[in-house]
Amino acid sequence: MPANSSRLSHAAAPAGPTGLRADARHNRERILQAAREAFAELGIDVPMAAIARRAGVGVATLYRRFPTRESLVTEVFADQFAACAKTFDDALADPDAWRGFRTMIEKVCAMQVVDRGFTAAFLTAFPDAIDYERERTRAERGLTELTRRAKAAGRLRADFEVADLTLVLMANRGIASGPTETALAASRRLVAYLLQAFQVDHADPADPLPPPAPLGLDHLRNAQVR
Amino acid sequence: MPANSSRLSHAAAPAGPTGLRADARHNRERILQAAREAFAELGIDVPMAAIARRAGVGVATLYRRFPTRESLVTEVFADQFAACAKTFDDALADPDAWRGFRTMIEKVCAMQVVDRGFTAAFLTAFPDAIDYERERTRAERGLTELTRRAKAAGRLRADFEVADLTLVLMANRGIASGPTETALAASRRLVAYLLQAFQVDHADPADPLPPPAPLGLDHLRNAQVR
DNA sequence: ACATAAGCGGAGAGGTGCTTCCACTTAGGC
DNA sequence: GCCTAAGTGGAAGCACCTCTCCGCTTATGT
């Protein structure tokens, strides 16, 4: 690749961020699809080779396109993020503050169970993936607002903290093993219990909650749960 | 080792199950101690070599004494089991059925958080470790009785299922990452919420729980949570 | 059609953990 | 003190995963 620019007609192509050859672009898609499936089924730790095999390409191709596991995960869960963000927006748009709050929790927890690795990707988040950072801030803002509104509507107990949402996600994560159907049923029941406990008329002044743990969404990082 | 039994005075020794040479017995203790620490700090997946190093013995020694990781875990968590069993007994002995039920949950959850790998050992349980099986049956019986009594006392909601206790443990397991102090605080708060939801006066007939997931204590097996 | 850069796959280097083998050391009964 | 079986540690054989290098293939503009 000499700096000599006498003829650059060749490498021109679509020039955009997707300036890939047609076949390469196609392969990229296949890899993403394969990774999506593999992550969902086996968790984010699946060997890169397994993804490559499933995609029908060599490992080298995989690595060329996504130099790090992180970059692959980031890309794969991009739309999952979008879905998650949409969930927040929907919740915020709901005129019934409590219903918004409630369905938000229910939906996110279901997502978490159905697609293993989603949480890991979203919250465990590789610290330096910029987009994640942005999304997370956005998420945190939405959650705060949802909480505020649900309290204002007089349905959410006053001693509920935004950090408790992290608590829910972490707890729900513990549920996400075993066959999806079972896990989903378990998750639904757990969430139902928790939502009942979160309602204002269930707070018992004679029996106050222990202080909230200092948990931010980023505390799901050290995912070492086994 | 010729079958010739002309002089068997040698290999006699204490003959009991602990018929080990003094130094070997000593090493065995050191291994157990090291394993206990390692499991608690790093989880049950710590490399065998790490345990050996910490114990100041060679890997071979470790493997000779505990041919499988399972056998080591079984041995290490034996007393932890005893503690757990005692918790059940205490709970059953409490004249206040609800208090018994409640403190049982609180204590077990705390144990689960403080000593990672405890759950894994106890519930994930290697299917064939006989003692575990027995302990688990015993545990299940105790839990059933505790549940029954708490309901009879009119404090525990009627639609609570014994399987929900598994739910609590699984949820709590999701909490157990991060520094112990934080995890403990989080766990305490989660448990408090759940206990409130479990009380009879919080059940809302207009808003029934989703059906319980078919979870037995043994469903914590496929521990792949990450 | 052809030249050329882009793309490709597989082999293999390097790292980590599990488990076994084997030559050496040592406890402990005589 | 001596002898022997019991015990020991480290090295080596596997298996698995990550990531890179390199010679071959193929799309694509002219």
Task: Describe the model.
The structure is a homodimer of 226-residue chains. The N and C termini of chain A lie far apart (48 Å). Chain A has two domains: 23-76, Homeodomain-like (Arc Repressor Mutant, subunit A), CATH 1.10.10; 78-220, Tetracycline Repressor, domain 2, CATH 1.10.357. By secondary structure, the first copy, chain A, is mainly alpha-helical. In chain A, 62% of the residues lie in helices and 0% in strands. The longest helix of chain A is centred in the middle third of the chain and has 23 residues, at 130-152. Chain A is built from ten helices and no strands. Chain A is elongated and about 65 Å long. Chains A and B meet through helix 9 and helix 10 of A and helix 9 and helix 10 of B. The structure holds a DNA duplex (30 and 30 nucleotides).
Quaternary organisation of the protein chains = homodimer
Tell me the CATH topology of the largest domain in chain A. Answer: Tetracycline Repressor, domain 2
Low-confidence stretches of chain A: 1-17, 125-129, 217-226
Largest sheet of chain A: none
Strand content of chain A: under 5%
C-alpha end-to-end distance of chain A: 48 Å
CATH class of the largest domain in chain A: Mainly Alpha
The whole-angstrom Rg of chain A is 21 Å
Please outline the helices and strands.
2 copies of one chain form a homodimer.
Chain A: H1 22-42, H2 48-55, H3 59-65, H4 69-76, H5 78-93, H6 97-114, H7 118-124, H8 130-152, H9 163-175, H10 180-198
Chain B binds a DNA duplex (30 and 30 nucleotides) through α1, α2 and α3.
